[in-house]
Design goal:
Elements (H helix, E strand, L loop, with lengths): L6 H12 L3 E5 L16 H13 L5 E4 L7 H16 L5 E6 L3 H7 L14 E4 L5 H8 L5 E7 L6 H4 L9 H11 L6 E5 L4 H10 L5 E3 L9 H8 L6 E4 L1 H4 L10 H22 L2
Helix pairs in contact: 2-3, 2-11, 4-5, 8-9, 9-11
The structure holds the ligand O=c1ccn([C@@H]2O[C@H](COP(=O)(O)O)[C@@H](O)[C@H]2O)c(=O)[nH]1.
Organism: Saliphagus infecundisoli
Family: Belongs to the OMP decarboxylase family. Type 2 subfamily.
InterPro entries: Aldolase_TIM, OMPdecase_AS, OMPdecase_type-2, OMPdeCOase_dom, RibuloseP-bd_barrel
């Protein structure tokens, strides 16, 4: 399989090979990095490298959130991170929640273009609020995964996403139905929070074939069991934990970056096993 193999084929192969649906979120909050890395060149990259070394055997994907990299040093750290994850054979899902008018989205779509000047992510999260044309440059890329925000994990997700339309269906259900229509190339998935177990179940009925990215277990209090039960389509989907893994070593603060990495490795292994107990 190469970077030009459709994302969900690569993901299915990776899930089967390492027996894991775990997405390891790489959100290297600079304020929480181990002290012995803070004066390094690119501390976020130094941190991520150790986390990747410690967790890659358990990671179906790595999911860096773009918010933690949006400054000049950060983008360098992100590119190093993507290249290093690829070197370990792990796809990268960039949680960037992008979309804009078509002309602008074409620039955003460069982030998942394997021909770009620099390492490309394998999949990306996108925001459906501007409609189908705003997503077209992502959807047209047959090799990259496109995860559409549907019912998010945050408390305020209900403010707009739960509003009933004239048909009575909530907005998030319409988003799911549209995402299914946008899936001409088999490259579309949904983002549905683990904090919303009823919506997970409902959405699985509406779009039986779309894989979900399910964030919100761990630090946000979501339940892992429904996340696995409803998040996977034909066994393919991703359950994410970010802070719960990369900062599992907070209790070992003062013992250095290696102690952090070791704690992250153990946390990833434990969570993978727990998720596997719920897989059919
Ligand atoms: O609905 C959503 C969409 C995205 N996220 C992102 O996932 C991780 C979750 O981090 P944790 O530390 O495991 O809580 C983070 O990058 C969020 O921005 C989400 O939580 N909910």
């Amino acid at each position: 399989m190469t970077a030009r193999t459709p994302f969900f084929d690569r993901l299915a192969e990776r899930i089967e090979r390492i027996d894991s649906v775990l997405s390891v979120g790489l959100d290297p909050d600079p304020a929480r990095l181990p002290e012995d890395l803070r004066d390094r060149d690119l501390p976020r990259w130094a941190f991520n490298r150790r986390i990747i070394d410690a967790t890659h055997e358990h990671a179906a994907v790595f999911k860096p959130n773009a918010a933690f990299y949006e400054d000049p040093e950060g983008w360098r750290a992100l590119e190093e991170t993507i290249a290093y994850a690829h070197g370990k054979g792990v796809p990268v899902l960039l949680d960037a929640k992008r979309a804009d008018i078509g002309n602008t989205t074409r620039r955003y779509a460069d982030l998942v273009d394997p021909d770009r000047d620099g390492p490309a992510a394998d999949a990306i999260t996108v925001n459906p609020y501007m409609g189908g044309d705003s997503l077209q440059p992502f959807l047209a890329n047959e090799t990259a995964g496109v995860f559409v925000l549907c019912r998010t994990s945050n408390p305020g997700g209900s403010d707009l996403q739960d509003l009933p339309l004239e048909t009575g269906e909530p907005v998030y259900e319409r988003v799911a139905a549209l995402a299914d229509l946008w899936n001409d190339h088999g490259n579309v998935g949904l983002v549905v929070g683990a904090t919303q177990p009823e919506e997970l179940e409902e959405l699985r009925e509406i779009v039986p074939d779309l894989p979900f990215l399910v964030p919100g277990i761990g630090a946000q209090g979501g339940d892992a069991e429904p996340a696995v039960e409803y998040g996977l389509a034909e066994g393919v989907g991703l359950i994410n934990s970010s802070r719960g893994i990369v900062f599992a070593g907070d209790d070992a603060a003062g013992e250095g970056a290696d102690a952090y990495a070791s704690a992250a490795g153990q946390a990833a292994k434990r969570l993978k096993s727990r998720l596997n107990r719920y897989r059919a």
